Amino acid sequence: LWCFRTQGAGREANEYRKKALDANGHVPEYLLKKRIAPYDQPSLYSWGSPEEAIIYYFDAKEAWEKTAGALAWLAAAAFPQKK
Prior knowledge:
60% of the residues lie in helices and 0% in strands. By secondary structure, it is mainly alpha-helical.
């Protein structure tokens, strides 16, 4: 997100986005409201788990929502349109 905010949607930001999606592909489900986050954060998590994604969502949702175009940029990679 930081790279997108400072440099826009380019090669470097797209590479970081891919690495992030590979690390935890559950995050976009919550940021893009495909899944509803629970009211409380989980007390335990594993790397790459839905629980880790929920914790990240609570920590980062405001930054994503305040960055113009960021959620659409994320959606384009996480849920590409089928032709």
